[in-house]
Amino acid sequence: MTTENQSHELETEDLGQTMPVDVLDNEQTLVMQKYNIAQASINEIVARSREVKVNGPEDKEGYKKAKECLALLRTTRTSIEKKRKELKEDALREGRNIDAVAKLLASPIPTEENRLKAEVEAVDKYYEDLKAEKERLEQVKLNDRIDTLKAAGMGWNGSYYAIGDTISIDAVTLKLLPDDKFNEFVGKVEAENTRIKEAIAEQQRKEQEEKEAFEKQKEEQRLEAERLEKQRVELEQQQAEMKKQILNARIELLKGLGFVDSNLNSLTILLTTEWYEEIPYTLYHSDITVLTADQFKTEYENLKTLISNSELYKKRQNEAKAAKEAQYNARVKELYAMGFVERDAKDGFVFSSKYDDLYFLAVLPGTLNAFDEAQWTNYINDTIKQREAIINQDAQIEKENAERAEKERQARLSDSEKIQEFVSGLAEQMKHSPKALESVQYQRLVNQFDTDMEKLINGLIEALNG
Prior knowledge:
With 466 residues, this protein is mostly helical.
């Protein structure tokens, strides 16, 4: 049993468990007395236990007290549990006896109760069936009346049955209406239905007449619209043909100025201006067509002036272009005369070292026409100096190469070959003596020298070989 006075539980921080608070009703107090132990005694045992603490394995005294308190707590708890089971068994035995006596007392009642209940329910069902049959017949009658009213022209609008603007009846009134009143009401409905049908027929007749009149008017309007459309198309065709003739005449005039067809809808002519050469000037057919006669005349005269100026500009540009080409060719010849060759579009004209591909002098094509005569003369003079530097460097390299080759050749000669080469050289030098030494006497001395030197050389060779 749960009441507001039932004992509550209070959390104990030290033990991590709960203890009952002394708030008990009278019945619980009587039960408490049957346990033969006071709550104060239990609280005292727990309080003493809280004072006991074991400070590690070496604390023998604390360990002994802890075991004693533990045994006392366990004994107290088990004695309470044992007494609880004894008290609860007595209560369960008393409950079973109460249930057995109640069952014995009530055993004769169900049979008689069921008998009387069946007889009462049979009478109730009889009257319920009578009521249901009465309601069914009333519903059948109501349905027949509804069918009669519907056949007479009435309809349900969601709340009641109605016909016209003045005759209506709800379902409850229809159900309770006496037969003679219902027949009289049906007569009114049929009369109203006849009136409504005649009014509808008259309205339909008038609408048909209006429809036929409208269709006739519509057909007349259609025929008139077709006639006006035909006139409009013919007028547009005439205007289009006239515009076409005007356009063709204007195109022929423009072609006489030099314009040509660029596509189906435009004419183009290439014009030269003071700054640009042969830029397209385009006239669209649509722009030519919309001009009035005076506007086209003005445009035509302006175009003649524009084309005349274009031819003048073109002549000047051609002359300037020819002058530039002549200047370019003359300067190219000048470069060729200096030993330059044309390499490619990137380097242009180059004069290269014979011994170092990376050492070359380049004149870009754009440079040829970039300078006036004075600037070009200065540029060529600087170029000549750089060219002479390359030539001098190549000459120095050739000299060094010849000297190195001579040294290598001398190193490969034998002693006899060196002596022969020395004598030959000396003799060659004597052959080229000044004219003052070309007397007969001098020639005899030279011949005697050649003979003596030959003997000397042969002796040296034999000595070297021996």
